[in-house]
Amino acid sequence: MGLSTDRIVNNQASTLEHLFCSICHEVLWHPVTCGTCEHSFCETCINEWFQHQQRCPNTCEYQQRARVPHLLTQLLSQLKATCKNTTNGCIEIIPYEALEKHEQTCLYEMRKCQGCLKSILKQNVDQHELQCEYLEILCINCQATYRRRDTHNAIECLRNQMKNQNNLFELKITSLENDLKRQTELLNNIDQQQKTLIGQLDKQSREAEGRQWIR
Ligand SMILES: [Zn+2]
Ligand SMILES: [Zn+2]
Ligand SMILES: [Zn+2]
Ligand SMILES: [Zn+2]
Ligand SMILES: [Zn+2]
After folding, report:
1. Are residues 102 and 24 part of one domain?
2. 59 C-alpha vs ligand 1 centroid, how far in Å?
3. What is the dihedral of CA 64, 13, 89, 97, to 10 degrees?
4. Distance from the CA of 92 to the center of ligand 1, in angstroms?
5. At 145, which CATH number?
6. pLDDT in tens, 163-196
7. Same domain assignment for residues 11 and 99
8. How remote is the CA of residue 78 from the centroid of ligand 3, in Å?
């Protein structure tokens, strides 16, 4: 999408009309130029266009120019615009080329509080979240998360802690049981090997005895 004409403050209708994107009919934003017809479009507009179309909006064979025409860059750079956060209180008038950078750092940007989901000025959000009743916080004693407004009482906290302890014990017991099982298997194995060995020895000594008889 382009930059809305309403936001341009040094509006000269005669120049402005050369700076329109013919897809969104707003002032070009991140322009790219078709080298065949020399028309320019916002980068996002032309990308969206080619998701459904094969040819340039002017029906020509689209070939993107390596650079947009110098005159176009020059005209665009003369524009000045209001910040997108004007309605939140930002009164800055910003040159076209500095607009993007300003808006990335504008203090009048709104952000949602993670708790109550209200939109709040970015600069106030941290302060707000320190007190927001709806924000989930973690109890360092029992590791439970709860909304600040639902603070749990000491009994519930203790109950949680006991539950955590029990879970820990159960884990330990299971691991001990597994250890025991493994050791029993090992012992059984050794037992089995021993029996086989004794069997073999028996057999060998019987054979030896047999040979003595024959002699
Ligand atoms: Zn556009
Ligand atoms: Zn074209
Ligand atoms: Zn601003
Ligand atoms: Zn909040
Ligand atoms: Zn707790």
Report:
1. yes
2. 17
3. 40
4. 24
5. 3.30.40
6. 999 999 999 999 999 999 999 999 999 999 999 9
7. yes
8. 19
